[in-house]
């Protein structure tokens, strides 16, 4: 039969009894009754077959075996207390430190970067580490805490996904372009226009444009543009449309400021497709640091800035 494992409380009782010279005082410091601490030491001695303390009604002293072990016991208890302190500090500091967030490059620059000053004011103890990427990544392998991604995100084992917000897609062009070329009335009219295509870096192909039916019913229409220009940077697509190069199809959050400023005008509004979801994804651990929850909560509270 294997020998029972020595417990932390047994070592603590032994050390406190010796240091205080009293079972009663050792019990008080450890939150145990005098009989409880006495039974703990008795079980330790019985389990190991060695007497550590000489005790009588009026005296208490170490046996030779106890004298040999007390130094090691004190060192072990000190180490345990250091580990406990470190764990307590780590739990407290879970609200502080670095949070690494991966987001689509255009979303990072258009939506997250403008919020960084407000975030620093709200959470000065959190270092926000923002990383632009249009590829789905492995959170553990790439050392990322939270991933923001749009569109269809299949269930990833061991991960938790939460909706950040839903956004519309907008076909748009500069007022100067529309004044010169006219405004399309239906998606098929796009064949007569200069279109700015976006090459998806994940797929390597130019994204299809999606439209709904004019009356709000029926199936979605996917329009594969014959572009006059192709770019693989979403920010560049928006800037090129503002410059008057043609019609672009873009997420609303990317062109919202330009639409409000009048440097872009929407077209085919009545043919708008269903919104797309921007997801927040993190590892599904019960003990994620508090700072991660605070970052995700901040993003959710500031969704209005993305629209």
UniProtKB/TrEMBL annotation:
For the keyword ATP-binding, the answer is no
Q: Does the keyword RNA-binding apply?
A: no
**Which Pfam family name is an example for this entry?**
LysR_substrate
Q: Which residues form the HTH lysR-type domain?
A: 6-63
Molecular-function annotations in GO: DNA binding; DNA-binding transcription factor activity
The stretch of residues making up the signal peptide is: none
Q: Which UniProt keywords apply?
A: DNA-binding, Transcription, Transcription regulation
> What task does this protein carry out?
Transcriptional regulator of the ttuABCDE tartrate utilization operon.
Q: Which family does it belong to?
A: Belongs to the LysR transcriptional regulatory family.
The protein here is known as HTH-type transcriptional regulator TtuA
State the organism named in the record. Answer: Rhizobium tropici
């Amino acid at each position: 039969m294997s020998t029972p494992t020595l417990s932390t409380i047994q070592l603590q009782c032994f050390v406190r009894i010796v240091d205080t010279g009293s079972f009663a005082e050792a019990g008080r410091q450890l939150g145990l009754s005098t009989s409880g601490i006495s039974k703990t030491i008795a079980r330790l001695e019985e389990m190991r077959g060695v007497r550590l303390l000489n005790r009588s009604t009026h005296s208490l002293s170490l046996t030779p075996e106890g004298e040999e072990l007390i130094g090691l016991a004190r060192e072990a208890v000190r180490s345990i207390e250091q580990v406990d302190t470190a764990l307590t500090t780590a739990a407290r500091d879970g609200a502080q430190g670095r949070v690494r967030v991966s987001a689509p490059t255009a979303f990072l620059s258009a939506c997250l970067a403008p919020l960084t000053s407000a975030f620093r004011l709200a959470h000065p103890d959190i270092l926000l580490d923002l990383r632009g990427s249009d590829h789905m990544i492995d959170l553990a392998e790439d050392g990322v805490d939270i991933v923001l991604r749009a569109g269809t995100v299949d269930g990833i084992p061991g991960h938790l996904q939460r909706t950040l917000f839903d956004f519309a897609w907008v076909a748009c062009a500069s007022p100067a372009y529309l004044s010169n070329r006219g405004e399309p009335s239906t998606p098929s009219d796009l064949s007569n226009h200069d279109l700015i295509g976006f090459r998806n870096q994940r797929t390597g192909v130019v994204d299809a444009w999606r439209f709904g039916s004019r009356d709000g019913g029926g199936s979605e229409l996917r329009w594969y543009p014959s572009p006059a220009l192709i770019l693989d940077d979403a920010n560049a697509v928006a800037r090129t449309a503002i410059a008057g190069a043609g019609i672009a199809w873009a997420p609303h959050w990317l062109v919202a400021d330009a639409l409000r400023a009048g440097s872009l005008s929407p077209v085919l509004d009545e043919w708008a497709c269903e919104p797309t979801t921007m997801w927040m994804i993190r590892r599904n651990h019960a003990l994620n640091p508090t700072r991660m929850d605070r970052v995700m909560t901040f993003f959710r509270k500031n969704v209005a800035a993305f629209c």
